[in-house]
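Before relying on records like the one below, remember that each one covers exactly one chain. Contacts with other chains, cofactors or solvent are not represented anywhere in the record.
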Amino acid sequence: MTDTTKYAEWSRESLIERLLFLEKQRNEATVTNDIPAVETDKANNPAIDADVGIDVGIDADVDVDADGKNAQKSRKQSKRERQFDFGKFSERKVALKFSYFGWPYHGLARQGNALGSEEKRDIESQFPTVEGEIFKALAKCKLITGESECDYSRCGRTDRGVSGFGQVIALYVRSTGKYVSEEEAAEIKRNGTAEIIREERNGNRPVVLPPNERELPYVNMLNKSLPPEIRILAWAPVKADFSARFSCKSRFYRYFFSGDGLDIDAMRDAASRYVGTRDFRNFCRLDPAKQITNFERTVIDIAINPVPPKVSFVGDGQCPESKWWQLELRGTAFLWHQVRCMMAILFLVGQGLEAPSIVDQMLDVQGVGGKPEYEMAADTPLVLADCVFNKADVDWIYVRNSGQDAANMATLDRDILRQWSHLNTQAIIAGALLQNLRNTVIPVPESLKSVEGMDVLEDQEDRWANCRARYAQPEKQRVNHVIVGGGAIKVVRNYVPILDRKRADPVAMRNQAWFERKGQNKRPKLAPDSSTEDNNAL
C-alpha cells in the first residue's frame, strides 16, 4: 500500500491530528538542531535573509484552521517564532562610520540602556536619539546580544540638533568567522591562509575570520533597519583594544552660516587666535560633576571659507543672504559646547560688537578668571564632519565587492538625495515667499520722496532696500539683533561688551562647591585629567 493510498483511507479528524503532530516535530527540530554556518552572498544562496544574515529556510510552516484548510504562514512570521542562539556564532570587533541629521533627535547619546527595560524604551520613544535607533537596528539584525555586553565606544557626543557626517562607534558584533580546533588553527597559521583571532569574547577559542568581502554585509543590513536620517557609510575590522574615543587622533567640525551683516575678515582674524594649545575654560560649559581641572585643548587649524559652489543652495549668489560660509575647525579633543561658544564670539566680532582681540583676552584665564555670560551659537548649523584615525588602526570598507555593491552605493546616494530634495523644497517655498515680498511695489510716501541729505526715491526703483532703510530706526534708538546662527537672533537694546558682563565663579570654586554639596564619597563622572576627552564638544 502506497503512502497516498494509506492517507486516502484516513478520516478528516485523523488527518488533522497527523498534521499537527508532524508540525510539532518540525518546530522542535528547528529549535534543537544546530544552525549551519552560511555564506552571505545572496546571489549564491537565496535562502539567506539579508536583514539577519542567517539561513531562515525555504519551506513554509503549515497551519490548519478550524475548517481543516491548509494555509502557509509568511516567512516573517516563521522567522519571528524561531529562537536565535548567539552562542553558535563568533564575534568580532568592528568600527562603524555613519552620518545623521541631528534635528529629528534629542542628541546622539541614548538615554541609558535604550532597550534594557520598558521604562527605558518609553523614554527612548518619547525622546529619540541617534544611538537609540542604531541599537534597535543592531538588535533587529541579531548583531548584538545587548547594549551593555558589546564593549561599545563612541568618538564624540553631539547635542540635540547637531548633525554628523563622519561619526564613529566601535563594538563587538556577530560574525561569519568559524570556530576551529587547535590543530586546525596551527595548520592555518603555518600556511598563512587566513587570519585567526583569540579573544575572551569567544571563550579564547581560535576563530578563523572570513575575508572582508565574505563577512556579513553590515552596512546594508543596518541601513535597511535604520530611519532615513541615519545612514551607515562604512565599516572596518579593528583590534580588541580599539576605542572610538581614545584611538581618535583628531576631529573635524564645520559650522555653516550666512555672511549677511558679518565682517568675514574680522572673523578670520579672531579665529586665527584660537590656533594652538590653549586654556578654553571661558569657551565651554562647565559640568562640576565631572570635576575637570584641565581645560587645555589643541586646535590644529581653523579657517572660514565660502561654501563650495558645487554644494547647491537656493538664491541669488549676488545677494548677501545667499552667500554662505563655513567655519572649518580641526582639533585633537574638545570641551563641552566648546565649538558653539567659539562660534558665538566670532559672530560678535563679525557684527562689530567686539574686536578680534576679545579672543586673546578671554584665553587669558589669569585676567578673566570666570566665564562671562553670553549666548552660545545655535546647534543646527554645526556638523561633526570627520573623525580621523591612524590608517593602521582603521581601514574603512565602503564597498565589499565592486561588482556586487556598486548598486548599494547608488542606493545610499539616492536615499540622501531624496532627503535633500524634501528639505530643498521647503527652502524653495520660503525663498519664493521672500521673493514675492521683495517684488511687491511699495509706494514711497510724499514725505519721504525728498529728505534733506538723501537721494530722491522713486516708486519703481530700489523700492525694497531703500524703503527698508528709510523706515529703519535712528542709530541711537536702533535695537541690536545679535546673530547666533541658524537664522536665529537675540534682540538686545543696549549691547553690553563681553568683559563688562557678569562672570561665573572660577572653576576651582565651582568644583569645590559641587564636591561639598554631593559629598566626598560620590565619585566624579570622569577623571579630572582626562585630556583626551571629547566631551560633548558640540
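Residues 31-71, 526-533 have pLDDT under 50 and may be disordered.
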